[in-house]
Design brief:
Helix content: 25-40%
CATH superfamily of one domain: Immunoglobulins
Strand order of the largest sheet: 15-22-21-20-19-18-17-16
Radius of gyration: 25 Å
Oligomer: single chain
Shape: globular
Largest sheet: 8 strands, parallel
CATH class of one domain: Mainly Beta
CATH topology of one domain: Immunoglobulin-like
Distance between the termini: 62 Å
Number of helices: 12
C-alpha cells in the first residue's frame, strides 16, 4: 500500500511536468502536442512521461526509402486533458505529377508499454516500463503504473485487430505510435506528401504532416546471411495451424531473414517445410540444419569409427540433397552448441571429414577460444560477440565463412542496438552474416518476463498471435539492420562500377577515405540515420541518377 501511494505521487509529479510543457508549448491555446523521432536510432527510450525537445515537437514526419522498402518512424502523442476514442487516419500520399502512394501503404500501431525484467539484455534486471509490443488494439495489454504490473486482457495468444482501433489517451501521458510506410515496387521517385489526422471526442482535430521521399535507385539484395535460431516444425494438423506457421515464415522474410535455422523432422515433414520456405523465399543462403546424426553425435558415439563415419556421411549427403532440390546455397549441419576447449577440439576430425567430402559443412555457436582451437577447421563458426579482424581473416583464409551471434540475443527491446549489431557491424568486420538466439523462445510464459528459473529472460523477437506474429520494436530494428546492409551493398556496387569505368575519381576517393579503418567499428556510436543518408548521397553522386 505504501509503495502504491509512492508510485501514485511519482506519476502525479511526472504528469504535472508534462502538463506544464503542453501548456507552455501551445501557449495555452491547444490541448494537443505531438513530436516525431527516429524509430530505430534512439539512445533514449520513449516512456509515458517523456517530455519532447522543442526541435522535434509538432514537426512533420520525414521518411526516406527505396521502392519495396519498409521505413518506420515514431510519433509521440500527448493531450492536456483526457482524449476519448482517439482515431488516426492516414491520407493518400501525393507525389510528382500526381503520382500516389495509397493510404494502405501507411501502417500505424501503438508501441505498447509494459513491465519487463530489464531492457536491452538477455539476463534478468530491474523491473522497467518499456515500449515493446506493436498493437492495433492497446486494450489487450495495459500497464498499471500504480502497482507497476501488467494487465493482460487475453489468454494464450493475442487476437489483435486488423487496423488501429480507437483508443483513450490519458491526460498528460505520452502515447508512442509506430508508423511504417512501404513504398510500392512501382512507385515513381520523388517526394510524396500527405497527412495523418487525429480526432477525438470533444477535441478539435490535429493534423500531422507526413513527407515520404522515394529514392531514384533500387536496393541491392543483402549480401550477408541473415539467420536466426528457429526450431518450430511445420505442423501436421489443421490447416489453420499450417497457415499460422506460414505467416511466421512470411514475417521473417519481410523483416530481412534469408534462411532461419531449420530443425529436421521426418522426411515427409522436411519436404513440406522446405517447400514452404522455397515458395516464400527463405532459401537465399545455406541450409542451416539441426538434427539427425550430426557432428556431436559422431564425437560422443561409442560405435566403431567406420560405423560413425558412415552415419555422418549419410546425414551430410541427405542435407546436400535437400539443399540442392530446394534452392539453398549449400548446407551446414549443427555441431555442439558453444563447445570450447577439449569439447571443441574433439570435433575437429568430424570437421575434416566434412571438408574432405566437400559437401555439407559444420555450423555451431563458438566462444572466444575458437580462435586458438579450431579457427581453420569449422566450415561456418557462429562467433559469440564481435570477433577480431585476425579471427575473421583466418577463417576466410581457410576458405570458410563466419557468422556472429549474441550481443544482443532475441528479446532485447532496443531497436538501435539491433540495427547496429546485425547491420553495419557485420560489414565493418567483414563477417558473412549473423545468426542469434532466437526468433521466439520463452523461458516460462512468453507473457510474463518474471517467471521461469535461472538467469535468462524470454527470448522474443515476436510474440504469439492468434492469426500471426505480434511484432516488436526490436524486430523492426532488426529489419532496419538488414536494410542498412542493402544500402551499403548498393554503394559498394556503385563504387566498383565507378572505379572500373574511371568515373567520379573524387567521389571514389571520398568513399575510400570514409571506409578506411572500418574494422575499428567506427559506426557503433554514430547516428545511423546520418550514416544511411551519407550512403544515399554517395550512391546518387556515383551513379548520376537524376534526383
Amino acid at each position: 500500500m505504501i509503495q502504491t501511494a509512492a508510485n501514485a505521487l511519482t506519476v502525479a509529479r511526472r504528469r504535472a511536468r508534462l502538463a506544464d510543457f503542453i501548456h507552455d508549448f501551445g501557449k495555452g491555446q491547444t490541448d494537443w502536442v505531438f513530436f516525431t523521432r527516429s524509430a530505430t536510432d534512439n539512445f533514449q527510450t520513449i516512456v509515458p512521461w517523456t517530455v519532447p525537445v522543442a526541435v522535434e515537437t509538432n514537426a512533420p514526419i520525414r521518411l526516406q526509402l527505396c521502392r519495396g522498402e519498409y521505413e518506420p518512424g515514431n510519433i509521440g502523442l500527448l493531450s492536456r486533458r483526457l482524449a476519448r476514442r482517439v482515431t488516426l487516419t492516414a491520407s493518400d500520399l501525393v507525389g510528382p505529377g500526381g503520382a500516389r502512394i495509397s493510404a494502405g501503404h501507411v501502417d500505424v500501431r501503438i508501441a505498447q508499454y509494459w513491465y519487463q525484467s530489464g531492457r536491452g539484455a538477455e539476463t534478468r534486471g530491474p523491473r522497467q516500463l518499456i515500449p515493446e509490443l506493436l498493437l492495433y488494439d492497446d486494450a489487450i495489454v495495459r500497464p498499471d503504473l500504480l502497482r507497476r504490473e501488467n494487465v493482460l486482457n487475453f489468454q494464450g495468444a493475442i487476437a489483435d485487430a486488423e487496423y488501429l482501433l480507437p483508443f483513450d489517451l490519458e491526460a498528460c501521458y505520452t502515447k508512442l505510435l509506430w508508423l511504417t510506410v512501404q513504398a510500392p515496387n512501382d512507385a515513381a521517385a520523388g517526394i510524396y506528401r500527405g497527412l495523418i489526422t487525429v480526432t477525438a471526442e470533444d477535441l478539435p482535430p490535429l493534423t500531422i504532416p507526413l513527407q515520404v521521399q522515394v529514392l531514384p535507385f533500387d536496393l541491392a539484395p543483402n549480401p550477408k546471411i541473415a539467420s536466426m535460431y528457429y526450431h518450430d516444425r511445420v505442423p501436421d494438423g489443421p490447416s489453420s495451424a499450417v497457415a499460422r506457421y506460414r505467416r511466421r515464415l512470411i514475417n521473417m522474410r519481410d523483416h530481412g531473414l534469408t534462411d532461419p535455422m531449420f530443425r529436421l523432422g521426418n522426411e515427409e515433414e522436411n519436404e513440406r517445410a522446405l517447400a514452404l520456405r522455397r515458395e516464400i523465399g527463405l532459401n537465399r543462403g545455406p541450409l542451416l540444419a539441426d538434427g539427425r546424426y550430426g557432428v556431436w553425435a559422431f564425437v560422443s558415439d561409442d560405435a566403431p569409427l567406420e560405423e560413425r563415419t558412415a552415419k555422418l556421411r549419410e546425414t551430410a549427403d541427405y542435407l546436400w540433397d535437400l539443399a540442392g532440390r530446394y534452392g539453398f546455397d549449400g548446407a551446414c549441419m549443427s555441431a555442439r552448441d558453444e563447445a570450447a576447449g577439449d569439447h571443441l577440439r574433439a570435433e575437429i576430425p568430424a570437421f575434416h571429414l566434412l571438408g574432405k567430402w566437400g559437401r555439407t559443412g559444420a555450423m555451431a555457436a563458438v566462444l572466444s577460444d575458437f580462435a586458438t582451437v579450431a579457427v581453420r577447421d569449422m566450415q561456418m563458426p557462429n562467433y559469440c560477440g564481435f570477433p577480431s579482424k585476425q579471427t575473421v581473416e583466418a577463417v576466410h583464409d581457410a576458405g570458410h565463412k563466419i557468422l556472429r551471434y549474441a550481443d544482443p540475443q532475441g528479446g532485447a527491446e532496443d531497436p538501435r542496438r539491433w540495427r547496429y549489431a546485425y547491420g553495419l557491424a557485420l560489414w565493418e568486420l567483414d563477417l558473412d552474416g549473423g545468426c542469434t538466439w532466437a526468433y521466439r523462445v520463452a523461458v516460462g510464459s512468453p507473457w510474463n518476463d518474471f517467471d521461469g528459473d535461472g538467469t535468462y529472460r524470454d527470448f522474443m523477437m515476436t510474440y504469439p498471435g492468434v492469426d500471426g506474429p505480434i511484432d516488436t520494436v526490436q524486430w523492426e530494428g532488426y529489419r532496419e539492420a538488414n536494410d542498412d546492409l542493402r544500402y551499403m551493398q548498393t554503394l559498394e556496387l556503385a563504387l566498383a562500377q565507378a572505379r572500373n569505368g574511371h568515373r567520379h575519381p573524387r567521389v571514389v576517393a571520398e568513399v575510400d577515405a570514409w571506409f578506411l579503418n572500418k574494422h575499428e567499428r567506427r559506426f557503433r556510436g554514430e547516428n545511423l540515420d546520418a550514416v544511411r543518408e551519407r550512403i544515399v548521397q554517395y550512391v546518387l553522386r556515383l551513379t548520376d541518377v537524376p534526383r
